[in-house]
């Protein structure tokens, strides 16, 4: 799975400065991950930094746009490109329920629903031959909704209403479950192959 989703992420060492001013050399995976948005394939520039206490602490994840891109802030990505997701907040490597492979899969699904970057529009020329920069067409940031245990572990918006077969994990909405089955073909929790998706109707 990592070879598929993260095949364009290069392992290397980079300097990282924490908000406290402390600098550390961290092992990183830097490159792009592939997404499909409205039927078109895109490569999203991503950097995953493994902290010194990895895997006991969650990695730091950043979207790193090129000069031709602009970040679209949302509930998952801030203006600096820092990625925030409940999967990172609930990181649990002790019980082996959190790992880089599952993180990348969730990033793929999340960014396929809401791309974190857009390509800048080129400058346009007005009637007086003066070049004016056209502002990028940014989507409005989504509000930060209060999340509950009933929400899908992937999109964190729709209610979880599907069970994955044969692993039996229930914690994902029908839309994300089918997207997992079509793209990664594995459960985002245990990475077992998805054979079927059953919708669960709750009273």
Structure description:
- The chain has 203 residues and is of the alpha+beta class.
- It has two domains: 1-121, Ubiquitin Conjugating Enzyme (Roll); 146-203, Herpes Virus-1.
- 15% of the residues lie in helices and 30% in strands.
- It is built from four helices and eleven strands.
- The chain has helices spanning 2-5, 86-89, 100-113, 174-182; strands at 9-17, 23-37, 40-50, 60-63, 69-71, 117-119, 124-125, 131-132, 162-165, 170-172, 196-199.
- The strands form four sheets. Strands 1-2-3-4 form a four-stranded antiparallel beta sheet. It has a three-stranded antiparallel beta sheet with strand order 10-9-11, with helices on one face. Strands 5-6 form a two-stranded antiparallel ribbon.
- A hairpin with a 2-residue loop joins strand 2 (23-37) and strand 3.
- Mean pLDDT is 80; it is low at 131-148.
Element layout with pairings:
Blueprint: H1 2-5, E1 9-17, E2 23-37, E3 40-50, E4 60-63, E5 69-71, H2 86-89, H3 100-113, E6 117-119, E7 124-125, E8 131-132, E9 162-165, E10 170-172, H4 174-182, E11 196-199
Antiparallel strand pairs: 1-2, 2-3, 3-4, 5-6, 7-8, 9-10, 9-11
